[in-house]
Amino acid sequence: MADNRAFSYIKGSSAVANGTRGNLVLTAEGLEFQPDSGSKKISIPIEKIMDAAIEGTIRRRLCVLVYDSNARYYFSVSDQETWRDVISLAAGIYRKILGINPGSGKNSGGANQNPAPVRTQAPPPVTPPPPPKAAPSAQKTITPAPAPSKVTAASQPRKAAPTAIPQAPPQKSSPAQPQPAASTPQNTSKPAYTGPWPSGQDYEQSFQILKMSINHSLGKIDQWEVVKNSKTTGWYVYASGNYGSIYKVKADDSKYYAIKCFTRKSGSLNDRYTKISNFLSTKASNMDFLVHFRYYEEGIKTRKNPAFFFPLLKMEWIDGVTLNNFVKMNIGSPRVLKSISENLLLSVSKLQKVGAAHGDLSGDNIIIGSKGEIRLVDYDGIYIPDFKGQRATEMGHADFQHPKRTGETFASSLDNFSALIIRLSLLTLAEKPEMWEKYNQNDPDCLILRKKDFLDLNNSEAYGVMMKTRNKSVKRLGAMLEDYLSRGPLWDGASPHDILSL
Q1: Residue 231 pLDDT > 90
Q2: DSSP class per residue in 408-439
Q3: What is 321-501's CATH topology?
């Protein structure tokens, strides 16, 4: 698949294929999946794509069908319906442009019997519409220059985006000094933005013309350098998730930063992140396991909407590996696994002492540094005292959360269940390392227990094997889990102190 077409990007996000997490990207040339592990990528040229569908009753996945073959490619993505529609539309437009009518006959494998045409020319790149003129009262902006003719070539996800997150995303070693919350001064005469929120595609284009897109209140932008993701050649996004995409830049101070751009509109976004930033720089200023950031209400604009700046987060770049990758790397080191689980509980305890909770402790939101230090990333679901009485903005990874959790489940004890699951799982793996391959199966969104286990613990095979260990702590933690599941998600009988005492 060509990777040097200007503005051919259509959609991208983190995904899982064949049990491996990576980034799925659709361009005018086709569909490409690049594994985070660096293993062989999957490339499907646009002319080979027949259709896309969602298959499966319990485990629903995006299925991409190809011509001249019984092959079906399956991907686990967060927004399956959107992916299905966009892939089908892109393939249809390609056939329409070239006047191709492949027919409707299908064989038993779901592929079209008529052969796909030989590609004689490259499909035209997807070019964004010309920027609209700003309203007379709008703030004066610089119109981006025409896009270059070529583009040369996230992280762990995300939820790039990929966070990550991506999820989460790749990380930096030393914590930044706490910074006060800040936002770009607004022009009160500027009309409120009411249009559609930028997509990952829009931000991808913005980072190709960074000097024209980032608000200069962030620093000396003309000295900034965008760092492309080496694992997704030709693309800038490192991770993407439910709320945004993560990009990496080298700023004018020669330090690396993560830039998070939001893909969801929220009326409380400004107030929420200003309060989170204030919390990090005051009550949590001495917590080196947190990532400090600065929120900019007017941070980045896109070619589609050049008259408006959209918010972003600028935060320190953290180098490290996700919890799941760390477990895989240290599956034969019981002391290391026990130590990591203990350090995590101590971090959760410190948060609770100031009335806070991360809200989404999971395999890709916990980063382990080169010296074993823990960093918690992605604060879209964080709880702080200022949010008392509000609803949670997201539910977290289901395989780390109490099955009865709802939007009303929002308090400082929110991390108790996740911490218990992680401690129980890591202590079990320290005793029974063989359970990792059998029950995790390269799934980045769980350890060895899943939501289906929580819903029917008595019939859970993985839990049954756990309880056969001779380790007394594992047995006691298992009993605590049974008790917890019979109670509400915010049960305070499983505090970090209680968990560590078993």
Answers
A1: no
A2: T--STTTTHHHHHHHHHHHHHHHH-THHIIII
A3: Transferase(Phosphotransferase); domain 1 (1.10.510)
